[in-house]
User: What shape does this take?
Amino acid sequence: MVTAKKFKSDSKKILLKSLFSNENSLIDKFINSNSFINTISLIGLFVVFQYLFSQIRFFIPDNPVPVTMQTFGILMVGGLYGPRLTMLSIFSYMIIGIIGVPVFQGHSGGIDYFFGVTGGYLIGFIFASVVISVLSNTGLKKGLSIWAMIIGNIFIYIPALIWLSIYDFGWPENGKLFSQAVYPFLIGDFLKLILASLSINILWKLSKKNN
Assistant: This one.
């Protein structure tokens, strides 16, 4: 019994330690994300900026899914934060939105919105941010960060296409899944990829001066 209790206690300590363990990420070149206070602060910073990016939007004619700067926020958090901090940040943002806080595009929020037409894209944000973060922290950093972002961007569309294929929202029209749910967003995504990659590269150069 004592051994079992000790094992459970040690497991909890290991889990807590892993949640706040040190990461060799870009953000750690500027601030130690290892501490509890810094972790909470950086999560809050992401939620605020992602909310602001979500409100920068415009609609394509006959398309209920707007072009927003949300993807830029996802690309940036993946390139800037380590995997642990990225996961904590993106899940915090999603949970806050799901419980009703209007942090999604158009000041939207709630479970009904999450399971609406844009739900697949939101799920894709989770996968994309983590994938980008893992790749950025295992070699695809600095000048190679754009490749991590390109791969991550694909992970936004995969859940979105599956989502729109399974559920009937009246959009996209039959036979127009790619022409309405993917192609109209590619130019904007390319521009956001370039902007995010340049931003991350600039931050890497600044980190060298900082050290």
